[in-house]
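Thread: Newbie trying to understand structure tokens

Hi all, I'm a second-year student working on a class project, and my supervisor (Dr. K.) asked me to get a predicted structure for one chain before our next meeting. I've only ever worked with sequences, so writing a 3D structure as a token string is new to me. If someone could post the tokens and maybe explain what I'm looking at, I'd be very grateful. Here's the chain:
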Amino acid sequence: MALNKEFPGTKNETCANVEVICGSMFSGKTEELIRRLNHAIIAKLTVQIFKPIIDTRYDEHAIVSHNGNSIPCIAIAQSTDILQLYTDAQVVAIDEAQFFDNSLPQVCNTLANKGVRVIVAGLDMDFKGIPFDPIPAVMAIAEFVTKLHAVCVKCGNPALYSYRIVPGDDKIMLGETESYEPRCRNCYLTANNPQ
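---
Reply by user tm_fold:
Sure, no problem. This is what the structure looks like when written as tokens:
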């Protein structure tokens, strides 16, 4: 029996489970997702990658990290589309998962229960510091959760917040460095509660 290289000691080649990669904007979530997918591809596992159709920032048909690394994907409208488009891949990846509906946890469970390794990446909090559904529910059913931190642009400490620097109260607003900054707790609170 082959051992899984990503999780030493496991005996199932694809290590059926749900993994979550979460954190603030600019923390390297997509970069880590691409790294894990490249490991799976090197191990000759079949992969299938999905992202929300509303994410058109870099490429409509690829997940792309802020560093410019990319890998082709399928853009979909809702999480249940994953089950309809699933092609018996051993690894299923879902990027920008915070933009999906609350059916995502069930979709992840359905795939993992079929023996699929499911890797989900997304923001765990919105710009107001509120848990960003459906990520918390996916984290609850995951075997593995990796919380990444960016670097606070104000002080250099680990940043867990995505601070919006442009006006607007909509929960979903696509943007990059022109719209958001990573902030640590103190710098985020100072900006939101000026004295």
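A couple of things are worth pointing out once you decode it. The CA atoms of residues 62 and 71 lie 5 Å apart. The two ends are 62 Å apart (CA to CA). Feel free to ask follow-ups in this thread.
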